[in-house]
């Protein structure tokens, strides 16, 4: 028997006050895994709150019980109260407290047992119990495994299934990325047997945008995508002014970084956006080009082998320049990774 699972089994053997939290700017995996775990723990008789560092994007509001999520940026008192009462804090889809921004000090000073459940590389060693599985498609899949390991597969109802599917679908790029394992397909098969309708979840996430988001996409792919064929790379950078002009909200740029990878010879893509005086960067790759390392080495970030993020304190123009220099540094590796894919 797995020691960590047994420890969690003991912790959950009597009703507890529990907080579930995830990283800043929640995506479908962060929110989906949190709400799936929430529904499961509530069914088992625990008192549970999901706490988010900031407000969630519109395309995730459909998730069952999303309206109950407490947001630190505008419900600070309720969040602090929930953390004070908690005996257990589940930390999902991040492995470094700094990823929760303003919420981090409250989580760190809490005396609750902190349980990490995550699939990013290089976890921080500050959690009491850790399930860190970078080989898994998503945190949602690890939550599914945990529920199974606790012998509660029969408790997975439709709300849990929808949340789990949403995270696994988006973190695998609709089951296209290299993290699309047999285990994630087996999970999906089981969820469908339990009544999940995959196309409803897919529509709720991907077919719910306003016109402006598609116009924006057209604009940036036409006018803003820079290609560097010699490095098999692409960079897209958008300013705050451009986001304002197209009324693009937080979260609505999600996934845009993947578009350049559909070009035949491109194996690395960077998306840079300026918001609230901060430059955020997303990196994606195909094959063996390690963007976790790339983000760590050059941009104070990290993530997975083929998907990562970073930050820049500099202007957009200087950030583009820095990425280009990093690409020059990696020219040989990029070429080799490209050739390996042919
Ligand atoms: Mn994830």
Q: How many DSSP helices?
A: 13
CATH architecture descriptor text of the largest domain:
Alpha-Beta Complex
Beginning-to-end CA distance, first to last residue = 43 Å
Q: Helices and strands, in N-to-C order?
A: HEHEEHEHEEHHHHHEEHEEHEEHH
Overall number of strands: 12
What would you say about this model in short?
By secondary structure, the protein is an alpha/beta fold.
What does this protein look like?
This protein is an alpha/beta fold and 342 residues long. It has 13 helices and twelve strands. The protein has two domains: 3-206, inorganic pyrophosphatase (n-terminal core) (Alpha-Beta Complex); 211-340, Diaminopimelate Epimerase, Chain A, domain 1 (Roll). The chain has helices spanning 3-11, 28-43, 76-85, 104-109, 139-149, 158-171, 182-193, 198-206, 211-224, 240-245, 291-299, 316-329, 331-340, and strands at residues 17-22, 47-52, 70-71, 88-92, 113-118, 129-132, 225-228, 233-238, 268-275, 278-285, 302-303, 307-312. The longest helix has 16 residues, at 28-43. It starts with a helix and ends with a helix. Manganese (II) ion binds at residues 29, 93, 119, 138-139, 171. The site of manganese (II) ion has 6 residues, from loops.
């Amino acid at each position: 028997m797995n020691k960590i699972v047994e420890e969690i089994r003991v912790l959950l053997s009597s009703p507890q006050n529990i907080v579930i939290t995830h990283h800043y700017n929640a995506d479908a995996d962060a929110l989906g895994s949190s709400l799936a775990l929430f529904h499961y723990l509530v069914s088992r008789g625990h008192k549970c709150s999901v706490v988010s560092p900031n407000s969630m994007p519109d395309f995730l509001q459909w998730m069952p019980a999303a309206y109950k999520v407490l947001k630190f940026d505008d419900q600070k008192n309720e969040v602090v109260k929930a953390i004070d009462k908690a005996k257990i804090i589940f930390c999902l889809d991040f492995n470094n407290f700094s990823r929760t921004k303003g919420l981090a000090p409250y989580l760190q000073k809490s005396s609750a047992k902190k349980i990490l459940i995550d699939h990013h590389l290089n976890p921080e060693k500050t959690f009491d119990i850790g399930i860190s599985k970078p080989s898994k498609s998503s945190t949602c899949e690890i939550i599914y495994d945990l529920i199974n390991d606790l012998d509660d597969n029969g408790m997975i109802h439709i709300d849990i299934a929808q949340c789990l599917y949403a995270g696994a679908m988006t973190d695998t790029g609709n089951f296209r990325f290299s993290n699309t394992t047999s285990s994630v397909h087996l999970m999906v098969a089981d969820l469908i047997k339990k009544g999940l309708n995959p196309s409803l979840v897919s529509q709720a996430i991907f077919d719910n945008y306003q016109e402006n988001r598609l116009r924006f996409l057209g604009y940036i792919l036409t006018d803003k995508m820079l290609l560097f064929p010699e490095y098999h790379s692409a960079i897209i950078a958008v300013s705050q002014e451009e986001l304002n002009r197209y009324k693009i909200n937080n979260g609505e740029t999600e996934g845009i970084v993947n578009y350049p990878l559909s070009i035949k010879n491109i194996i690395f893509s960077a998306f840079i956006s300026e918001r609230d005086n901060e430059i955020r960067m997303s990196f994606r790759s195909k094959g063996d080009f390690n963007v976790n390392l790339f983000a760590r080495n050059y941009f104070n970030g990290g993530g997975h082998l083929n998907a990562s993020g970073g930050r820049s304190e500099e202007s957009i123009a200087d950030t583009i320049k820095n990425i280009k220099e990093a690409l020059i540094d990696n020219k040989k590796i990029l070429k080799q990774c490209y050739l390996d894919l042919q």
